[in-house]
Design a protein that fits this description.
Organism: Georgenia thermotolerans
Structural class: mainly alpha
Protein name: Pilus assembly protein TadE
Helix content: over 70%
Number of strands: 0
Distance between the termini: 60 Å
Radius of gyration: 21 Å
Largest sheet: none
Strand content: under 5%
InterPro entries: Rv3655c/TadE
């Protein structure tokens, strides 16, 4: 049991890290898209910067 765990654990940890990184990248992409949408809307409406 211990040998199997020692072999499998690095793979499981790596998989978890890859999944967390992918989720973080997806969240960042959504935030960037929302910011771009808000900026385009503000520019189209002629709102001053910073509001």
């Amino acid at each position: 049991m211990t040998a199997e765990l020692a072999v499998a654990l690095p793979g499981v940890v790596l998989l978890i890290l890859v999944l967390l990184t992918a989720a973080s990248a997806a969240l960042t992409q959504v935030r960037v898209a929302d910011a771009a949408r808000a900026g385009a809307r503000a520019a189209a409406l002629g709102e001053p910067a910073g509001q």
